[in-house]
Amino acid sequence: MKKNIIVGQSGGPSVAINSSLAGVIKASGKFNIEKVYGMRNGINGLINDNIVDLTNYNNPKDLLNLMTTPAMVLGSCRIKLPEIDQDLNVYKNIEKIFKKYNIGYFFYIGGNDSMDTVKKLTSYFSSINYDVKIVGIPKTIDNDLVLTDHTPGYGSAAKYIAVTISELIRDTAIYNIKSVTIVEIMGRNSGWLTLAGGLPKFLGNDKPQIIALPEVAFDEDRFIEKINECLKVDDSVLAVVSEGIKDKNGNYVGSETKSGAIDTFGHAYLSGVGKHLEHLVTQKIGCKVRSIELNLMQRCASHMSSLADINSALEIGEKAVDAAINGHTGVTMGYKRISNSPYKYEIVANDVEFVANKEKFVPKDWTNLNNPECVKKILEYILPLIKGEVEISFDDNGLPCHFVI
Amino acid sequence: MKKNIIVGQSGGPSVAINSSLAGVIKASGKFNIEKVYGMRNGINGLINDNIVDLTNYNNPKDLLNLMTTPAMVLGSCRIKLPEIDQDLNVYKNIEKIFKKYNIGYFFYIGGNDSMDTVKKLTSYFSSINYDVKIVGIPKTIDNDLVLTDHTPGYGSAAKYIAVTISELIRDTAIYNIKSVTIVEIMGRNSGWLTLAGGLPKFLGNDKPQIIALPEVAFDEDRFIEKINECLKVDDSVLAVVSEGIKDKNGNYVGSETKSGAIDTFGHAYLSGVGKHLEHLVTQKIGCKVRSIELNLMQRCASHMSSLADINSALEIGEKAVDAAINGHTGVTMGYKRISNSPYKYEIVANDVEFVANKEKFVPKDWTNLNNPECVKKILEYILPLIKGEVEISFDDNGLPCHFVI
Fold this sequence. Notes:
Chain A is of the alpha/beta class. Chain A is 36% helix and 17% strand.
């Protein structure tokens, strides 16, 4: 008897995670898998037997709708499994569920923390010689996973950010009075999304004049100096700033004004650098100043997603099923870029050991943003990822149609 | 010799103001007007002879591009003309410019403050018997102009807000932990844009559970009580809140933390009602809470504009030229709704005396949002205004093509 699939979503949302889920559901048909189950709220659903049957969604209409729905239709979680020797019961419980639903293939769509779950489940089930293929499917708008050219979700977030910055360039330039606008962008410790905010400038616009990556030590005095230089030649200054910028000692900029709260993985909640810099500009320069957080919109604006991203997110979901059926386990899928122009990639399976709990940063030689060679590399990298627009469905009222389970 | 047109844009931006400008340029062709001039930065450009020739943009490609470019291609200003008897020189200066450019038709696209300029110029030029037709074209995302069914720009901002709230509903519902998300929406003292944030709920969704209009006295205790009630039946609570909500005494909620007030104990960077309420929820409930400002995006996101809005903004620009050519002066154009279903309107010219410096609020009998009759009225009003999506042009890089003068 052929075994069934179970799939879950974990970590922070993006607009491409449901597309990867659609890919898993779609590919199950190719291999005549009888049932595709979804776990509610990631690994929580697995532990608590909160399972939903997704098999009937394998039809073009539902899959398309799923592909263009933001966030996670299955819900998410932010929990880490215990070490196997610390709490064997959790694993025995999961084993029971696997048996109950005759699971032979487990897919987990998530970021670096979620790959830790893939890693631990692989260890457990291989230690008991239980035949289940365990495959991770990457996702994160932050683009900070290693061993993949990029992550699904990044291209769409990057496109939303670049489009929004393009629009803010228009909006902030209308008055002939001196003004500074600071846009705070997500990405934790990696500057990939902030680079996307710089795209209008890299493509020839004179703004944003300031692009602050977390990979480069941030100097508040230099920031104020640079704004003053810009204000001499232009009335409005636009700065895109990563939420994770740090000073030369490695302390988050404005950290003294942050809440100090940390999430369950021990990451500090980052928010507030924009407001911090806004107040700095008020104090040191005194001109009109505004800070803008792109906030959750950058990870859920499916109305402005990248066609390249949504399509390749579907594809990586499909390829994950291929890999599992072909016997891969303890792997996480990744994109391997073959060429920039024309843009070509293949989808590969990487050992999850080399991916879990690791972060990928913007390389040092990409951070000199005044160097045309550096800008060329950035453009070659990002532009294929934001290519194309997704036609989303709107209902008769003019609101987007979202898929809900 | 036929006289020329001059047109300007003033006040805060929207995504429809350039469409009205396109309407003026387009209609000039119909009447064989020789020159269409634009003033840079509104009335400032007129006073300082900072004038640009727009005549050659009267071609389908440029007009279409102009229609889908956010903010103001001519730039804006926020100045009020002095009273005529206080500073006659300003008016004499404008008269000189009118003569220099042989101006017979003056159009000013703006909000309630800008209509004050239309009013004063009309008074001056009629007092000296100078033959120039002076016509206001409304715009403001706030929708707070009187004597018009709605204002150009409102429908698009409303659509962006409603779509974004739809997406945030997905994003904020993924975890099974208690959380509150507060979205702060523009609109000054009128709740029209906040009503748009409520559209998903009015159309059958259970969120946003809380919709706070500035027309209804806001009670912080009741707000917390309502959140607690919602958290009993749902993990996530979404509240849309107008930036202009006031308590029962008419004081802006959180006003003590606005206006750049700084305290050094971690509350230094509170600003805006969203952050204020976020802090309140933290103190009183203690669950996960986040506030989001839709900020400038709600007025410049041309990638998510309403087709009905952009098209009718063009039309009102055209009709303004018709009105001027037909001898109207000292008027501001407005929409008069004829029927809801099918949605029909006509464009009329109202005496600017009755429009300038006045505000239109959400009517009292529309603010009981638990009443189905009230919700029906709101839907009948707003839905035709957000109807349809605008196909904007993207360049080969995947970024929007904007029109720049």
